[in-house]
């Protein structure tokens, strides 16, 4: 990633170096030329980007295969939750979303191919806020609360575990 950033900077600097002002004075209009050097840098940049996206895709394939190989009867996934799920500091938000969608679609395809029921939970299904013991909904659950504590039955559970139990019981509403 660092190499990518450096290359991107190099390219924009080269463009900056070669700009020629056009139009009237103080107009801030410039002409940018693409030198051979820039072309070369852009080619290198493209190669790095392609290599990175191959690594990501490879990773998605490995992960989804591992999941499918455990032969579950059913897989339930949640729709994209931008706030809650994307927290990889090294990837831009756009790429994270793109990866997430790719992950879901490949998982769906592999599930179907292996005869595993694949369900996408409704985007508004409160998987985290519902108590998997008694069914009460805890409205004030914050994103930072890593442990779910039920206000009604006092059940205590890891947040993600609680959510996954709820999702495992998810039924599609007709
Ligand atoms: Zn409860």
TrEMBL record:
Xref: InterPro entries: Cas12f1-like_TNB
Keyword Cytoplasm: no
Any GO MF annotation of the entry: DNA binding
Domain Cas12f1-like TNB: 100-167
Pfam entry (one): Cas12f1-like_TNB
UniProtKB keywords: Coiled coil, DNA-binding
The keyword DNA-binding is annotated on this UniProt entry: yes
Coiled coil segments of this chain: 31-58
Organism superkingdom: Bacteria
The protein's name: Transposase
Organism: Clostridium manihotivorum
């Amino acid at each position: 990633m660092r190499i990518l950033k450096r290359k991107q900077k190099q390219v924009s600097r080269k463009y900056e170096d070669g700009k020629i002002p056009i139009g009237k004075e103080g107009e801030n209009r410039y002409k940018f030329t693409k030198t051979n050097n820039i072309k070369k840098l852009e080619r290198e940049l493209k190669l790095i980007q392609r290599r990175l996206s191959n690594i990501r895709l490879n990773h998605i394939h490995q992960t989804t295969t591992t999941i499918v190989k455990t032969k579950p009867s059913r897989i339930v996934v949640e729709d994209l939750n931008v706030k809650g799920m994307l927290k990889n500091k090294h990837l831009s938000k756009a790429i994270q979303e793109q990866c997430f969608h790719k992950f879901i679609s490949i998982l769906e395809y592999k599930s179907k191919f292996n005869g595993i029921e694949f369900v996408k939970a409704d985007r508004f299904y409160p998987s985290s806020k519902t108590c998997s013991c008694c069914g009460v909904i805890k409205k004030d659950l914050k994103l930072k609360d890593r442990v779910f504590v039920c206000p009604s039955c006092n059940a205590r559970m890891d947040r993600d575990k609680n959510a996954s139990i709820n999702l495992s019981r998810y039924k599609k509403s007709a």
